């Protein structure tokens, strides 16, 4: 250990931009064994591991780095698996630069952080290949069932822990495949789909029952599910696209980011996607041969621009109202996008979308950064007389997501929500205002990170278990 002075920071090699832009495979291979051990050996084994402190899951990072450096890879996997239900997924899509790696002690000393995410990915991918990932073993049957609405990170995590605790678990999801945004929102070049599907299959093999293509409020009301199960967890995430109000916003060719990404991911699965059209181009969600303008600066916007490149767009531009330093998306994603040919139009905001039968251009204006807003970020202001026009055949709005109107959607007007539309919970119990109905993940905290969804899914199981145990005791006394 402590080799951070001798050995420098290293990442797995990325494929050449021109090659990786031709497919949806992940852009980097995983570490060779000797490189993973070398990078893990750079850990300083500091007394106060800020990497663990700033990980929402509080993963035992120094411990499994030490085990990796010593060649004890199976033990390293078992250690990483203690705190996370999806370590190979977090290793791929967590913003390590803002979490564990960004708070690495040797990063502060100027030696470059240990590349923790790449090592985490290597450990768990190896575990799958070697057969170290054990089947989900249900606990002793408790005679109670739980219903989980939403098969994203929070819902899947809670389902696993509750099944291990011995409950009958039913997961309800609107899509035809489980995984939520892991499956349909994140492109394959960041997270290949078989990675998610093998996790889901492990849960199915463990006896968790998945009800796919199931819409609460349509196929059953929330109250009907409450009558069927001893407890309910709502973990739907937030899917409602934020609106942009300006002339031409409803024109054909002005599309929502999630609709575009879902169509592309379905195509990657080999599904028939009529709105994608033929591979040669022309479909509503097919960027082939089109001038694409993506509006937004988060990771969803980065997913859209990089997906457009792979679909064969004629040009791809990202319009963002702040500068690079104030962009909410991952700096690594911006760099990857630029390498693949995406042009960023900084300090610019749309004013209108031109075209009658179909969008033809985006009318925009230049911005400048003024005084900080309530969040501390400098507010963008319009620069007078600075209008310009960008040619566009496809405009993708990637402005973030809000909560859907769940009381109406679930036909449950008594369900309490905050002024932001997220579910109101008692944070000591993670229960909503309805007895036995819990909530976790983005539907409570708002649009956030996958790792926080996993953390919330892990935390809520403790509260659900306590509630169900007490409920069972009351029922036994009453009987």
UniProtKB/TrEMBL annotation:
Domain (FAD/NAD(P)-binding): give its ranges.
146-452
List GO molecular-function terms, semicolon-separated: 4 iron, 4 sulfur cluster binding; metal ion binding; oxidoreductase activity
Question: Which SUPFAM superfamilies does this one have?
Answer: alpha-helical ferredoxin, Nucleotide-binding domain
Query: Per the database record, which ranges form the Dihydroprymidine dehydrogenase domain?
Result: 20-131
* Pfam families reported in the protein's UniProt record: Fer4_20, Pyr_redox_2
* 4Fe-4S found in the keyword field: yes
Question: Required co-factor?
Answer: [4Fe-4S] cluster
| Keyword line | 4Fe-4S, Iron, Iron-sulfur, Metal-binding, NADP, Oxidoreductase
| PANTHER family for the chain | GLUTAMATE SYNTHASE [NADPH] SMALL CHAIN, GLUTAMATE SYNTHASE [NADPH] SMALL CHAIN-RELATED
Record NCBIfam families: gltD_gamma_fam
Q: What is this protein called?
A: NAD(P)-dependent oxidoreductase
Instruction: Specify the taxonomic lineage.
Output: Bacteria, Pseudomonadati, Pseudomonadota, Alphaproteobacteria, Sphingomonadales
């Amino acid at each position: 250990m402590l080799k951070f002075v001798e050995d420098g920071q290293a990442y797995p090699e990325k494929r050449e931009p021109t090659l990786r832009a031709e497919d949806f495979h992940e852009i980097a291979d995983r570490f060779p064994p000797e490189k993973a051990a070398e990078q893990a050996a750079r850990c300083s084994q500091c007394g106060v591991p800020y990497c663990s402190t700033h990980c929402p899951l509080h993963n035992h990072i120094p411990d499994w780095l030490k085990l990796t450096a010593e060649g004890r890879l199976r033990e390293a996997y078992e250690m990483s698996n203690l705190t996370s239900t999806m370590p190979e997924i977090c290793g791929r899509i967590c913003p390590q630069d803002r979490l564990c790696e960004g708070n690495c002690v040797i990063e502060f000393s100027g030696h470059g952080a240990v590349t923790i995410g790449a090592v985490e990915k290597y450990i768990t991918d190896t575990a799958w290949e070697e057969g170290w990932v054990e089947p989900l073993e249900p606990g002793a049957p408790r005679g109670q069932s739980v219903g989980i609405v939403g098969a994203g990170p929070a819902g899947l995590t809670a389902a696993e822990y509750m099944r291990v605790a011995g409950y009958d678990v039913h997961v309800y999801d609107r899509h035809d495949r489980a995984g939520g945004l892991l499956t349909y929102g994140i492109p394959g070049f960041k997270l290949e789909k078989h990675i998610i599907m093998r996790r889901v299959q492990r849960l199915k093999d463990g006896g968790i029952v998945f009800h796919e293509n199931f819409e609460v409020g349509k196929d059953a009301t929330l109250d009907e599910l409450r009558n069927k199960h001893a407890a309910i967890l709502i973990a739907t995430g937030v899917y409602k696209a934020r609106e942009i109000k300006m002339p031409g916003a409803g024109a054909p060719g002005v599309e929502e980011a999630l609709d575009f990404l879902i169509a592309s991911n379905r195509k990657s699965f080999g599904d028939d996607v009529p709105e994608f059209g033929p591979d040669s181009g022309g479909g509503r969600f097919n960027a082939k041969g089109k001038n694409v303008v993506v509006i937004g600066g988060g990771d969803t916007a980065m997913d859209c621009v990089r997906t457009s490149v792979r679909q064969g767009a004629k040009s791809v531009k990202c319009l963002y109202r702040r500068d690079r330093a104030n962009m909410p998306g991952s700096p690594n994603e911006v760099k990857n996008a630029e390498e693949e040919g995406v042009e960023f139009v900084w300090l610019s905001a749309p004013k209108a979308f031109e075209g009658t039968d179909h969008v033809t251009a985006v009318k925009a204006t230049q911005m400048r950064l003024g005084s900080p807003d309530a969040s501390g970020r400098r507010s963008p202001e319009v620069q007078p007389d600075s209008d310009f026009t960008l040619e566009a055949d496809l405009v993708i709005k990637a402005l973030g997501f809000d909560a859907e109107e769940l009381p109406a959607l679930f036909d449950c007007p008594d369900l309490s929500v905050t002024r932001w539309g997220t579910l109101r919970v008692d944070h000591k119990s993670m229960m909503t205002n309805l007895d036995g109905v819990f909530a976790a993940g983005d539907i409570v905290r708002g649009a956030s990170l996958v790792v926080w969804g996993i953390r919330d899914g892990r935390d809520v199981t403790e509260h659900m278990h306590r509630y169900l145990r007490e409920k069972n005791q009351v029922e036994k006394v009453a009987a």
